[in-house]
Amino acid sequence: MRRSEVLAAEAVSCLNKALCHLKDIWEEIGIPEDQRLQRTNVVKNHIKNLLDMMIKEEESLKKRLISSIEKCKAEMDTLCLELQLNGFEEETGITMLQQEKNIRTQVEALVKEKTRRMQQLKSLLDQDQDLCDILCSMPYGIAPDSVPTPEQLESLSQHIANQNAEKARRHAEFMDLKKQITVYMAELEHIPETSFEKDVVCEDEDHFCLSRDNITSLKLLVCQLEERKAENEAVCEAHREKIQRLWDRLQVPQEEREAFNDHMVASRKRNLEALQAEVQRLEELKLLNIRHVTDAIRSEIAVFWEKCFFSSDQRQAFAPYFSEDFTEELLSLHDAEIQRLKQHYENHKELFDGVQQWEDSWRLFLELEKKATDPTRFTNRGGNLLKEEKQRSELHKSLPKLEKKLKAQIDAWESEQDREFLVNGQKFLQYVEEQWELHRIEKEKEKQERHLKKSKQTEEDMLYGTAVRTPTKRRLLTTTTPNKSRKVVNPLHVHGNAVTFCFVARSVVVLLCVATNPLPLPLSSGPAARMPACGGKPPNPRLQGCNKENEAQLKGSPVSGALLIPASPQRNFSIASVASTYSEFVRDLVSTESVQSRCVWNPKTCCNSD
Question: Which residues 6+ apart lie within 8 Å of 461 measured at CB?
Fold first, then answer.
């Protein structure tokens, strides 16, 4: 039996005992039966009313529970819909009170989740609004009164993080631009005029709107200030160049120039004003010294004429250059001409530099060609001859390459400019060909002069005999070079009755032929007894020392009784001319050796018949 039934049975038992007890009391008191019935009816009604009241209260409680359950269910459904959650499944087999408690607990949890989400949404929306005010951007697309989902809150949080990063980037960019603007304004001595410029320079950085439009406006302002600065620098630089040019033309003392040095570097507003004032002062001074300034400009014009390879006709075309009427108009014409020449030179600088390089190489080539005809070049020491030959060979190779390169550049320039590129009034290639042709004619002329001189010398030798011509540096035949040892093998050779002296030099071989008289004549200590060498001069002491043994044999042998007769001038032979080039020198040397080899006297053929 359940406890509630036991309690109900006990309640009925108590009620019966109470009625019995009341009945006993009434009997003892002697209350009549009708009053007993009346009193018993009152007890019954009282108990009934009490029970009815209790039942009514419990019925009311039941109704409240049912109402609460329904209300909680409705609220839970709404919260689930707002929070976008699935509905909760009700448990079966539980009492109404437990059901109401479970539903109410779930509703309280959903309300807390909704409150948390709404508070987080409000906080994020406040941050987003602040960022939107700073960055001047659109707010995030979410209603502030709707319950956000976790995904929406996460997306909003990420959006705010991106906005914060963008704010930091724009703020850094703003600070950098503001710094540049401040520097430029200080350099330009510019005072902020517009409200935007004042907001940038004067207001607090945290209150500045970092919108894209403002950042773009800042960049535009920086560009404008940069352009103004560049314009100022260009104007200042132009003034400086003009001032420097006028200083040079007017020959301003160095002390005055040094006093103005501060304005020759910076380009601020005060520097620009000072430069403008100086230009004006120099211009006024220039008008007072027109002749001197004009002469200075003419000197510059002459320099650029040379740089641009102007011909005499091109120079004559500028008639004011030769005018003696020094006026301001003449000075202006000279100023315009020098500017035109400078621009012309700058536009074609690469071509002019190439032509100048060719001119320098050609000049060096002509110098080397001239040195090649100098006879003294064979007596050089230190290998200069080899260096010159090597340099000349390199120029022979580099000049055609340079001409080819310049031809390609000139052709491209002429096709682009649609006019001819002139050097000294004629086309460059024509000018080059003329230079080569003049060089060829000069070489041919020199060659003809050498042949004429050689022919004349040959005729003189045939008429008067060959005279021994000593080389310029005679000491090369006897002296020795420390770095190069010279080998001399028995300079005195005795072949029967013929004695041949051979002197070997670096560049010249001289063969001296001396014939002996086969008739036995007494020895003499006079001049006739001495051995002549090289046209009657005494032999070199070093060579005498080397030939003591041969001289002793000549004195003591049966042949020594013969008197050594000096050869006549007709029997002496030497190289009459010096070659102009190394190849001609070798060719002449070979022919000379072949002739001199026949100058050795044979006693059987060269003796007198008597």
Answer: 467, 576
Structure tokens at 579: 């070659």
SS3 call for 311: coil
With b for 16 or more beta-carbon neighbours within 10 A and e for fewer, the 122-140 pattern comes to eebbebbeebeebbebeeb
Q: What is the pLDDT of residue 592?
A: 54
| DSSP 8-state assignment for residue 537 | B
Amino acid (one-letter) located at 470: T
Residues constituting the chain: 610
pTM of the model: 0.41
Q: What pLDDT does residue 532 have?
A: 39
Torsion, CA 211, CA 215, CA 218, CA 222, rounded to 10? 180
**Average pLDDT over every residue of 8-26:** 89
Answer whether 19's CB lies under 8 Å from 40's CB: yes
Where are the strands (E) in 238-394, listed by range?
Answer: none
Q: Which helix (H) or strand (E) holds 209?
A: none
User: Tokens standing for 292?
Assistant: 């001197």
Q: How many CA atoms lie within 13 A of 36 on its CB side?
A: 15
Residue that has been written with the tokens 């080059």 in this structure: 432
Region for 381 from its dihedrals, namely left if φ exceeds 0, alpha if ψ lies in -120 to 50, beta otherwise: beta
For the stretch 458-495, pLDDT in tens is 888 888 766 555 554 444 444 444 444 444 444 334 34
**Burial (Cβ within 10 Å: 0-12, 13-18, ≥19) of residue 509:** middle
- Which one, of 581, 478, 385, lies nearest residue 589 by Cα? 581
Tokens matching residue 495: 């072949």
Token pair 């080569």: residue: 436
Where would I find the H helices in 83-95?
none
